[in-house]
Amino acid sequence: MKTRRLIFALVAAGCALWLTFPLRATAQVSQADFNALKETVQKLVEQVQGLQQTNIAAQQTHEKDVEQLQELQARLAETRQMATNAEQKSIAAAQTQPLPRGPIDEATVNHNFMIMGDAEVQYARTSGQHGGFALADFAPIFLYRGGENILFEAGFDTTIQNNATNGPGYTTTFDLSFAQLDYVMNDYVTLCAGDLLLPLGTYTERGAGWLNKIPDDPLAVDALIPGSGVGAELRGAIPIGDAGKFINYSVYGVNGPGSADGTGNAGALDLGGNVGVRSDGVTANLHSDPSGGARLGLFLPFKPHYDLELGISGQSGEWDNAGSQLWSAGVFDAALHLGPSFEAKGEYIRTRYGSDDLGQISQEGWFVQAGYKLAGLNLELPAINNLELVGRYDALHDGLGTSTQRYTVGCVYYITNTLLFESDYEFLHSNDPSQADQLMLQLSYGF
Amino acid sequence: MNTSKKLKALVQTIFAAVIAAMVIGGLASTVCCAGPDSTSAPTNSVTPKATAPEATTTVVKSRLTGAELYSMHCNRCHPERYPTERTSAQWKTIMLHMQVRANIPTEQARLILQYLQENSGR
Q: pLDDT digits over A346-395, tens only?
């Protein structure tokens, strides 16, 4: 017990001393130190306050960043949703709609319709007459191709003409030049049927509109042979070797010429009539038998732009309603090209027909024409290079007493390769007083 | 009457002179252009897209190309048209028409059509 009291006393004394001595030590810090310490503490307080403000600003920035991040996340989610929706829609569309059609390869299209042709406007001045403009021709050709081997083609001519002398107005005519169905049976035979351009020579088939370099047709072609006939034809070509040579042929049967008044009188011969439907509506040929005709041609190229073509053709058949008179024609044709600048061609036509009043009548006519493109001179003058000089001599003896010779000189100016300005002057010598010299200007367009 | 005869003679003389000039010009042109380059492509044609290899050209020299046949046949009746003026399908129709009208052998018409289609507008 004593020991405990002693320990307790010692502890108490120790505590008293501990409390006493520190108080004395504190009391010993100087005022200057205290002020310095105080100043230090104040600085520390200021720094702490600054850090707190910085921390607050950082917290605000952080909060804004978090808001922006949340906003971006929201937008990203929307975008993903939209993409998902679009993908689902496209998948659904692909499943429900047919695949889009690919572009059409025109070369494989099995039918096609198009229009070709030509148009000409003329100015003509006949000696002793007033000169005048004329819408000479608008001649579209309609082509319809059905498949690889079938073609329907029809050509028309539109012209206008004043009505009777001193009468008002004018008349518009719309003529069918030809209308035929072509069926290519094989490489060597083509069947043509309809209103056919007849292969009597080559001018009739290849001389229309802008193809000819002289506005007027040859006299003999216009007067002695029909341009077309209603019937059927087999034609084709057989190549000879690989150098471009070939033989071509045509064999046809058509209604043939008719009689304008039904009689067999010489003046009644109608080369352009007899289309198979009479004026009273009855379908019939005007005479009992059709006419037959053929052409055989030989094409001999030496090299590109250098070639010679020769042909012989003919047609024969009844022409009067009684079927007692025959009309026959024979044509020899030739065409020569010597380079891209020079061309010469011509035809000799001879016809013969019987008549009730004048007996046998023999007719003949011919033409030869040449053209030279001045581009062949290599002058390098554009205006000259586009010019082609042309000339033609043609003659007609109609077997009824009229003989006409015509000399034509002129030129063609190629405005483009399809737009031509043609001009020529025709010198006529005839025992027919109605025939006179003539100046012709023509603007031709091929399309 | 004498005046008429003189005029007729003068016209015939002028006409004969013009024809003779054209024939002589054509023949002169023939002689001048008869070099190796005179077998070139047609005046209005474009350069063919498909060209044969050199060796092949040498071997089949005598066989005419579509471009050569095109210039040879089309120029017989009218100025050549540019292949780009028509579409491939239109050329097919036109060539069928021309094959019948000009009586061109089918094989030659095929070569011409191939040339035109390869160089057509579209």
A: 999 999 999 999 999 999 999 999 999 999 998 878 789 999 999 999 99
Superfamily name and number for A110-163+170-446: Porin (2.40.160.10)
A446–B contact, CB cutoff 8 A = yes
Q: Give percent helix, percent strand, percent coil of chain B, each to the nearest 5.
A: 65, 0, 35
Instruction: Characterise A63 by phi-psi region: left (phi > 0), alpha (psi -120 to 50), beta (else).
Output: alpha
From the list A145, A211, A407, which residue is nearest B15 (CB)?
A407
Name the CA radius of gyration of chain A, rounded. 53
Residues 6+ apart with CB under 8 A from A376: A339, A340, A341, A342, B25, B26, B29, B33
Mutation to test the A interface, candidates B24, B44, B103, most A Cβ within 10 Å: B103
Phi-psi region of A224 (alpha: psi -120 to 50; beta: other; left: phi over 0): alpha
Beta bridge partners of A170: A162
CA B110/CA B102 separation, integer angstroms = 14
Chain A partners within 8 Å of B108 (Cβ): 239, 244, 246
In a mutational test of the A interface, the residue from B3, B73, B78, B111 whose CB has the highest number of chain A CBs within 10 Å is B78
Of A190, A210, A341, the CB nearest to B26: A341
- Rounded to 5 degrees, φ, ψ at A271 are -70, -25
What is the rounded CA–CA span in Å between residue A148 and residue A216? 36
Buried b (16+ CB within 10 A) or exposed e, A306-327: bbebebbbbbbbbbbbeeebbb
Helix ranges, A310-400 (H): 382-385
CA distance A3 to A45: 52
Q: What is the total residue count of chain B?
A: 122
Provide the phi-psi class of A147: left if phi over 0, else alpha when psi is between -120 and 50, else beta: left
| Residues A297, A324 contacting (CB under 8 angstroms) | no
Give the minimum alpha-carbon distance from B47 to chain A in angstroms, rounded to a whole number: 16
Asked whether the beta carbons of residue B38 and residue A417 sit closer than 8 angstroms, the reply is no
Query: How far is Cα A373 from Cα A386, in angstroms, rounded to an integer?
Result: 7
Domain residue spans in chain A? 110-163+170-446
Q: Is residue B113 within a helix (H) or strand (E), and if so which, with residue range?
A: helix B106-118
Round to the nearest angstrom and report the end-to-end CA distance of chain A. 146
State how far the Cα of A384 lies from the Cα of A361, in Å rounded to an integer.
47
Q: What is the pLDDT of residues A194-246, one digit of tens each?
A: 999 999 999 999 887 788 899 999 999 999 999 999 999 999 999 998 888 99
Q: What was the ipTM of the complex prediction?
A: 0.73
Chain B residues in contact with A371 by the CB 8 A cut-off are: 22
Work out whether strand A326-338 and strand A342-353 pair parallel, antiparallel, or are unpaired: antiparallel
Whole-number Å distance between alpha carbons of A345 and A201: 11
Q: How far is A263 from chain B (nearest CA, A)?
A: 35
Eight-class DSSP state of A283: B
Q: What are the angstrom distances between the C-alpha of A168 and each of A129, A163, A193, A440?
A: 20, 6, 41, 26
